[in-house]
Amino acid sequence: MVYDTSLFGAARTVTLPGPLTLDGGAVLAPVDFAYETYGALNADRSNAILICHALTMDQYVASAHPLTGKPGWWTAMVGPGKPIDTDRHFAICINVLGSCMGSAGPASSADDSKPYAMRFPVITIRDMVRAQAMLLDHLGIDTLQSVIGGSMGGMQVLEWAACYPERVRSAIAIATAAKHSAQNIAFHEVGRQAIMADPNWRGGDYYADGEPPTKGLAVARMAAHITYLSEEGLTEKFGRRLQAKPGQETGAKSFGFDADFQIESYLRHQGISFVDRFDANSYLYITRAMDYFDLAEEHGGLLANAFKGTKTRFCVISFDSDWLYPTSEAKTIVRALNASGAEVSFVELSSPFGHDAFLLDTPGMNATVDGFLKAGEGK
Amino acid sequence: MVYDTSLFGAARTVTLPGPLTLDGGAVLAPVDFAYETYGALNADRSNAILICHALTMDQYVASAHPLTGKPGWWTAMVGPGKPIDTDRHFAICINVLGSCMGSAGPASSADDSKPYAMRFPVITIRDMVRAQAMLLDHLGIDTLQSVIGGSMGGMQVLEWAACYPERVRSAIAIATAAKHSAQNIAFHEVGRQAIMADPNWRGGDYYADGEPPTKGLAVARMAAHITYLSEEGLTEKFGRRLQAKPGQETGAKSFGFDADFQIESYLRHQGISFVDRFDANSYLYITRAMDYFDLAEEHGGLLANAFKGTKTRFCVISFDSDWLYPTSEAKTIVRALNASGAEVSFVELSSPFGHDAFLLDTPGMNATVDGFLKAGEGK
């Protein structure tokens, strides 16, 4: 292992020689990584917390996004005095394999110096985790104090605990599931078909010249975004309220196809702003990885086998209004952990904001993570 | 009123002079109608039952669809000896205004003999009902024994009871709501954006030459179709089962973007087969009408006002796994009916099939409708 302190700091990238053998049989070599770190690794390298990001998120957990200029996506969780306390922890978040913010993905250059596009191999959640382990090896981080993530990040958390139990002292899986359901797959398939239906997609070869399939990607984002919010939250936030148009004090039905309702305007904005920061091909690859995810299947059909003999401490958090990965999925994880004899804390938190609650300053979530991490430190 | 028995029978069309003044202010004149009838109108014209169809359905309730050759969409409900008993009732179903199976819609010819396309006026559920009343006037049907429908059909049922209480002796609203929620609007907006993102849409002017926006319409259908099924039903029917490809006995992950999962294959089929029988512009107009629907809003903000002093008997049916128009929406209707002093039966039926349960031979539904209709006949 190489240990080079210059590797720690903001906005780091590194290319490792690999090889990284993927579940589908392909081999990546070399492998590009982009990651962000917050706080300092202590002398015995025991305070590292790996943050795993969700489908459309990235490594900019607590620092400004270079494309949008917006603050990091988890500033409520990560920072000085926050549950992941940068005065005490060394936090690292790695752009997942297949993504588009610096780690190897379809937009990366293949051996012929042209972008992979759809020549990039189909990856799995386990491949993402293996890649992360490769980077941690390079950084000289053998053991993680904790691995934490929500949504697809939570899938990586479970996979980390299953693949590298000796490297994970504690694992915090939030708003997630141990497998993708038929309904989860269905929504992703709609998004993929929307992208592929866009003539600008051109079989994925849109990097060199031509416009990217922004319209298809925006539709995919809009469909997905509905699943991130609860019916209750949508009603509370938007209801049937009309959008005031220029020159109007209050909104009125246009008897046309403008965005009359505030929810329409909001969704259109979500779609349009997403395409400025995300690559359509990455959306295809990462949704595919999530759809393929079934941790029980990887362990002879029994989820408890994934955690057999584990010494990792687990914390599982769900939200009562999350219908994408509902509490029933969290309970499936908790049952398997109990069956495997693991130490596990489970809490269902109340929030009107659906799946997105994990990204918000949701009451109880930060206190739960804070308490769980401190208990592991004997505090 | 004109009464011409030759108007009754299968596959009828008629053009009425109008004018039909629409909620948006536009006037349609003349107005095309296409409708199907089943059974015979009795001497005192007291046995007519109006069946209102859903968004993508049509007048072919119990007869083969002329484009697909498939049997009618409600053969479990309508036929000899069925709850809507063609030996005893005269059933009529009219293709809704805005649709594409013969009634006036965006594909119809405007005054300049060219298709309206997006020049067709935006319509409401109330406009659909006013148009239906115009056709019933023409047919000499003053009073309906019952008006019945599921989903958007149920919205028309409620609107009929509100607009023409003296013409509706009983009303059966199934799997429906008195208004479209933010989530309902959101899913429709995704579908509309998918259609409009298809370059073949060309602002709606695709009738004369060029391909219609089939890819966009297919994506819209796929997204909507997920909302018609329950998570439980999808898991039961498809789960994570893989699709066997040609030459395979069982399915395997392709590590590609083929339809690996059965749910993907099913959804793609739903999308592809839909575009052969439905017009994309009609999809825009009818979803818009549904989004605009808020029966309380039409009556001073109080739903009970819509039914004030009504003598109509009501039957409201919901399904426990329907998350598109959940039982809570049915209860809102029932509460308003009770507040208005109406006679109302309400039942929540159990089905794993979500919203689509109303189209299936769902236990309890047929018995409920049968009993309700017979009670009205003093049987």
Please describe what this structure looks like.
The structure is a homodimer of 379-residue chains. Chain A is of the alpha/beta class. The first copy, chain A, has two domains: 5-181 and 294-376, Alpha/Beta hydrolase fold, catalytic domain (Rossmann fold, 3-Layer(aba) Sandwich), CATH 3.40.50; 184-285, Rna Polymerase Sigma Factor, Chain: A. Chain A is built from nine helices and twelve strands. The first copy, chain A, has helices at residues 125-139, 152-163, 182-197, 214-228, 231-237, 262-274, 280-292, 327-339, 365-376, and strands at residues 12-16, 20-21, 27-28, 31-38, 48-52, 78-79, 84-85, 90-94, 146-150, 170-174, 313-319, 343-349. In chain A, strands 1-4-8-5-9-10-11-12 form an eight-stranded mixed beta sheet, with helices on both faces. In chain A, helix 2 (152-163) links the parallel strand 9 (146-150) and strand 10. In chain A, helix 3 runs antiparallel to helix 4 (214-228) and helix 3 runs antiparallel to helix 7. The longest helix of chain A has 16 residues, at 182-197. Chain A is globular. Mean pLDDT of chain A is 95; it is low at 1-7. Chains A and B meet through helix 3, helix 4, helix 5, helix 6 and helix 7 of A and helix 3, helix 4, helix 5, helix 6 and helix 7 of B.
Kindly name the structural category of chain A: alpha/beta
Share of β-strand residues of chain A: 5-15%
Largest interface: A-B, 58 and 58 residues
- Spatial separation of the terminal alpha carbons of chain A: 31 Å
Main sheet properties of chain A: 8 strands, mixed
Annotated CATH architecture of the largest domain in chain A: 3-Layer(aba) Sandwich
